[in-house]
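Q: Sequence in, structure out?
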Amino acid sequence: MKLLINFFRKNRGSVLIEFAVILPLIFVLCAGVFELVMFTLLNNKLIRTAGVLGDAITRDDIKRSGITGILNTARSFLKPFEFNTQGRIVVSQIYNNGLTTDPSKMVISWQVNMNGAVSRLGTVGTRPTNMPNNLTVLNEQAVVITEVFYQYQPIIFKGFFPNKTLYHVSVFVPRVGSMTTLKAE
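A: Exactly. Output:
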């Protein structure tokens, strides 16, 4: 009986057991925080990339090769994330081809894409769909819309969470001319 009472009084291994129970929880918590920080950082970089690229493209009349050169700088904006395999960009110009407030007169004049991106707005020569914030282009005005896509893959929790396509868009009005056509090469 005395042996049994002494057994329940001794607690020399209790800290080790508590540590063994808590360690996996701490690991999951730290990994989750890391994953959340990386996801937030990527989202922030995509928003800024869409804005910077759209701003640079609309500063002056530009050739298709100039737009492609600007789009190639996205790789440096998005480091340390791999843009070549995971990212895509489309730049579209939307124009209202009449002195009217009728949104059905909007048309996609041109597009330049990178990494095989397909615009959510539509294709060249068609009426745009899914305009950001139901934007309407009026009275022979034009806007340049930059769409940035990124296929996010969780870093630590690859098997637990699915890949997610992140999408961000920026809209700018051309500063010089209407940019309804790209300058000749």
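The chain has a mean pLDDT of 86.
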